[in-house]
Amino acid sequence: MGMIGGGPGAFIGPVHRIAAELDREIELVAGAFSSDAGRSRAAAEAYRIDPERGYPDVAAMLEAERARPDGIDFVSVVTPNHNHLASAKAALAAGVPVISDKPMTATLDEARELAAVLGRTPVPYALTFTYTGYPLVREMRERIAAGALGTIRKVVVEYPQGWLAGEAEGKQAEWRVDPARAGAGGCIGDIGVHAFNLAEFVTGLAVTEVLPDLAAVVPGRALDDDCTVLLRFQGGARGVLLASQIEVGELNGLRIRVYGETGGMIWRQESPNAFTWHRLDGTTELVRAGDASLGENATALTRIPGGHPEGYLEAFANLYRDFATVLRGGRAPMLPGLTEGLRSMVFIDTCVRASAEGACWTELTL
Amino acid sequence: MGMIGGGPGAFIGPVHRIAAELDREIELVAGAFSSDAGRSRAAAEAYRIDPERGYPDVAAMLEAERARPDGIDFVSVVTPNHNHLASAKAALAAGVPVISDKPMTATLDEARELAAVLGRTPVPYALTFTYTGYPLVREMRERIAAGALGTIRKVVVEYPQGWLAGEAEGKQAEWRVDPARAGAGGCIGDIGVHAFNLAEFVTGLAVTEVLPDLAAVVPGRALDDDCTVLLRFQGGARGVLLASQIEVGELNGLRIRVYGETGGMIWRQESPNAFTWHRLDGTTELVRAGDASLGENATALTRIPGGHPEGYLEAFANLYRDFATVLRGGRAPMLPGLTEGLRSMVFIDTCVRASAEGACWTELTL
Amino acid sequence: MGMIGGGPGAFIGPVHRIAAELDREIELVAGAFSSDAGRSRAAAEAYRIDPERGYPDVAAMLEAERARPDGIDFVSVVTPNHNHLASAKAALAAGVPVISDKPMTATLDEARELAAVLGRTPVPYALTFTYTGYPLVREMRERIAAGALGTIRKVVVEYPQGWLAGEAEGKQAEWRVDPARAGAGGCIGDIGVHAFNLAEFVTGLAVTEVLPDLAAVVPGRALDDDCTVLLRFQGGARGVLLASQIEVGELNGLRIRVYGETGGMIWRQESPNAFTWHRLDGTTELVRAGDASLGENATALTRIPGGHPEGYLEAFANLYRDFATVLRGGRAPMLPGLTEGLRSMVFIDTCVRASAEGACWTELTL
Amino acid sequence: MGMIGGGPGAFIGPVHRIAAELDREIELVAGAFSSDAGRSRAAAEAYRIDPERGYPDVAAMLEAERARPDGIDFVSVVTPNHNHLASAKAALAAGVPVISDKPMTATLDEARELAAVLGRTPVPYALTFTYTGYPLVREMRERIAAGALGTIRKVVVEYPQGWLAGEAEGKQAEWRVDPARAGAGGCIGDIGVHAFNLAEFVTGLAVTEVLPDLAAVVPGRALDDDCTVLLRFQGGARGVLLASQIEVGELNGLRIRVYGETGGMIWRQESPNAFTWHRLDGTTELVRAGDASLGENATALTRIPGGHPEGYLEAFANLYRDFATVLRGGRAPMLPGLTEGLRSMVFIDTCVRASAEGACWTELTL
């Protein structure tokens, strides 16, 4: 694996590295970690890889690695959003598979451009919508698809955070509140889109209409930091998406509740190894990692016995495990890619535009 | 106390009786429990009061009780919504104080009529917005008023239930889904209005605008059973109100989260004797009933040592304790009355109308 | 009902009054609230009953009330432990039924004396082991009796408190650390005995042997304030009982876990309206108040719909409801009385003596 | 790193591999994974390392690796308990550092033999008492050492599991119930010892006396599967240790509660990224991963922002990170080693012997 981005001070680069390598199917061996040649070499050293393979730019990495017998097999894109498109295009043009951090690109136009590229190439492309990697999330999806809740009527998905309630300080905060680097969406693009993706993933239903209420609450901020979006799903199910970065004290409280005609299910990322399943007859089951009742998929993705907590890094690693399966020619039907990426960009774009216009219900048009 | 409504099969009548009598300041001695004379007498017997004082109608009760030296001092109105207005008016006209179950009346027009009556009389009138009786809810209100969270930015208030996810069976369910008895609002009037009231109570801020998304999800239902309402508060704080009666497995999960510039607070009715207080510096305090740090108000309303759970009946009793204070000539500034009642009726009416019209943001106009 | 004890500053007197009256089957009309005549009259006034019926001693109350057509039907004993025996004997001798706060008496010798009295009279006698009044506790008992867990193997019952971690201040604390008023047991008699009773109640099994480890942790204290007791139950099940009053921050965290060959159940008083039921096949059910799956007993004892929290006062009231049933000639098989009282006194006495002697396993001998 | 044990079907081998490699300071390159040559090669292939470096025995590995310029720098011992001694001795004799799964050895005699060896060599030796690697556990230790709770009075440490409630099936279960492979202790050696180690680690106090109550509850089992041990710590603090493998439904619920004169702290492995801190003044703080108030140690050991759950693998990796620090010549004062290993063996041995003899309080003698 070659990494694009992930240099000094990055949060998500080391996360991708750990996730990729957790199952020993993948090894980080090169990177264009920074556009500054010296910093990229330094990053290579920090990752304990050959400093020669810390390249100053993507083109240099692709060219040099192609020439090596032990060159990289794919790239992982972990830059700020505004470099996602160029990075992915360069790799795809060279025939190198891409796994990219979300969102797909900084803008919808860019996403459409990338989609066009992907439409013309068979080279694999995947997106790390991390939360779809949790075994219990996948179990929910499978049970819901199998009819555990009957027809879906209502979805409430929330992603509360509080870390941007004060001034945005530090490298991680700064680019997220800067339209030039983050794109048109702030909170909606950073975490709202995770909630959107999770809702579609778990229910198997597409969102067809949105009514967004976005705002920049902290004075002087250019991008939204607090979002509520009313949802309609295909088939008529109703939904609400709440995402915020100004809710003081909230850490990373992604959670989803899905209700159908005959049952309800509730999952929370802060306690990710279980979900609650309510049935219309009044009984409630607590489904836990390691339970014999879990399907093959969830069982295969659980590395240690139930009760030993597995978390975010393991969920992330499950996406890389899927990607390795794809690279070996296998199938990984739950791995997010072009479709999920484009849908999420349409979601961000529609929410930002409709909210700016004060529009009411607005269709999501791919 | 004389009760109006609360006859055989009623849920809320016995609750009011227990709540009223819990502190031994009030005793149920009479009632117009049913419009059927026999059933009213039977109800009196079931409550173990003199069957003679089980009257066939309100007028009879008011007249007979007035003639007794030990006659009632006030009435408690616990009928279905469509009888709230007539009951309250009759009592007030006779100079008898009224404590009424919410909502104030079945329709906004009726509420305005009752408000006009109340404007012309000094007779006390109160409304049992039950959840404002929880000691920890009052503690939150006081701390927020004292600046514990700084300027309020965001409020999320939820009232999920699931008991109307199937067919509406039983006396309790049937009148709630019948516009003739419940009024124009279904879920929004039954529980959404509790959430609305709680949000205004805790924050001390008035809601100024709403964007309602109401629906009757269960096929064939005439009234809404699932509601989302976007909110704006005076001063600009943003909010979301979620109420539903079709979320399978949810019992009575009223909860509220309030976030300001410098902190956040979270309270849940299903664990009512504590709330969480997050501060901007990253620390989190768990505030519990019985803590020495609690204010006088919360301490006075707690009957037993911390850790012995107090619940819904005790919260309800706190409202009756307040009402008894008022009847004795004292002050009970947190007891809901005309203002809260009228605001809540405007809220219901605006949500129902605006949602029917597909309107977007709509002002709450008193 | 006439009350013995429960005068000014008492905690448990008002609790008994509320519990007794909650269902309107019982009314407090008299009391020997204090051995000081003036204070007893004052207490009567505070309870809003006729001051004439605030008597200076038990004998006076029994005599005067017997002479009244509306005299008391039974007494409730809520004094500190050292007056339990005399109070109960006086009432029983007058043919007046007794419901008493636990423990039965201050010492085992006294308990045997009372047992002898009870053996010679048909007058009803009951003990308020409060926690057996929780609907979900009774549901556990019934399900376990019906075989839900198979043969019981292990019981862990805990009652952590922290309020005596510092100096014992206030009326409630002072008598509990004074052997002359509390009896030989401190923590073991105040709360350990509740845990003991709960364990026997829920499992339906008698404790046959104990290995107690009691200590007075706070310097200068004469009675134990921290207790661990290893248990053996009839049939061989193993157990552990933990009770403490010096665990800073613990409020009233009574909880019990029961494990058998085919399942486990967990209940916590701080969240009393649910328990968890684990099955050997790996599934876990959350059983909640209001569930349709609950038995008749638990359903009958639940006053309000599921999700509206019911707590300690309602559990306490369920014992008085049972007692009223007995007074009317009915049966209340779950209501604790002589047997439970005597067993608990043997438990306290054995633990205190064996611990003082440094004994190891010691039989409970009735 | 070279691994000893960890071949096909092993649970803990892959866990050590992931933990060791998580921070990219260590790489698994060789192993004596099985005493069967073919299986050892196969295991090497499964781990994706050179099959040549899958050796049939420890001696062969040590010799061959010593001859390589890129040979192993240390070994990780992950065999069943009865091979811990021989494996560690062989490596130490060759001057190769050892990190070993717990317990130190199968018996106390073996542990004393290993201690003697370690007393004569400066070669590093560490033991993976995993739970000491949790950042919040270390934070508790530091705060307690700094006086956050005052003098410690009481410790309750529990490790409930249920997976051996039925027949012991599967490779993991079988050796644990076999004295020849597990040693004299069953549950006490497998998980009780973790609880013991955690209690000493968090409090900084040594256990001086024990009163063990061990039993083999499942019929036909040779080793204990359910343990309660009363504890005394230096300075007089009282304690209770509960460990069980027959509590149906319990997964891996290690938890510890520590109470001192001025406060209490509670941590649970099933929610490892937070602990509760009660203070004598009645306030309660919830301390969470990522809080600014955390010390350097806990902060350094947290890889991702607060709210993204970290779990067991990350805690395990923290021990390997410490070990890498030691190998580079640095200090890792919290890393368990000889002292903790020997103490834990004395604990197991004393509990097994004293329980078999029906002894009461028994000193822990090193």
From TrEMBL, chains A, B, C, D:
InterPro entries recorded: Gfo/Idh/MocA-like_OxRdtase_N, Gfo/Idh/MocA_oxidoreduct, GFO_IDH_MocA-like_dom, NAD(P)-bd_dom_sf
Organism placement in taxonomy: Bacteria, Pseudomonadati, Pseudomonadota, Alphaproteobacteria, Sphingomonadales
Database matches in Gene3D superfamilies: Dihydrodipicolinate Reductase, domain 2, NAD(P)-binding Rossmann-like Domain
Pfam families: GFO_IDH_MocA, GFO_IDH_MocA_C3
UniProt KW keywords: Plasmid
Domain GFO/IDH/MocA-like oxidoreductase: 137-264
Coiled coil: none
Domain Gfo/Idh/MocA-like oxidoreductase N-terminal: 2-123
Protein name per its UniProtKB record: Oxidoreductase
Recorded GO MF terms: nucleotide binding
Keyword set includes Glycoprotein: no
Organism (species): Croceicoccus marinus
Transmembrane annotation, as ranges: none
